[in-house]
């Protein structure tokens, strides 16, 4: 799923967007402040987002609270059972940050299908395209 999102975000048809990848445990407030938009991905573990993504939000939330309002983001989630809790958690945090949902979330339960991967590609391309406007 990550590779499909990355492929969409870096498609040659979208010019002027530099995609910077960061593992959630290494994200700093500076990384978030320097970005114009965000693509977030996480497994749904035990009904919630990964501890790594939650850690990234914990580290960056207050330092980025006012400065990043209005920036677009996209989210893709993968769970073997439900993704509702992870979706609810990310939505609550991004709403608090004032980020703008750039596209419908990609929510996948079980093994990702070709259709799921195409949706991930579209998510990456949609968020990237909004950064060029």
UniProtKB/TrEMBL annotation:
Residues 32-108 form the NADPH-dependent FMN reductase-like domain. GO terms for molecular function: oxidoreductase activity. Signal peptide: none annotated. This is Flavodoxin family protein. It comes from Mycolicibacterium hodleri.
């Amino acid at each position: 799923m990550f590779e499909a999102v990355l492929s969409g975000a870096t498609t040659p048809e979208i010019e002027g967007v530099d995609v910077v990848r960061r593992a959630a445990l290494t994200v700093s407030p500076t990384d978030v402040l320097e970005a114009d938009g965000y693509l977030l991905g996480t497994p749904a573990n035990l009904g919630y987002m990964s501890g790594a993504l939650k850690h990234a939000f914990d580290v960056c939330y207050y330092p980025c609270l006012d400065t990043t309002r209005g920036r677009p983001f996209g989210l893709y989630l993968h769970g073997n059972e439900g993704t509702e809790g992870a979706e609810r958690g990310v939505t609550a945090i991004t709403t608090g940050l004032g980020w703008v949902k750039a596209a419908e979330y990609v929510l996948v339960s079980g093994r990702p299908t070709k259709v799921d991967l195409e949706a991930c590609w579209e998510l990456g391309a949609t968020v990237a395209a909004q950064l060029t406007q």
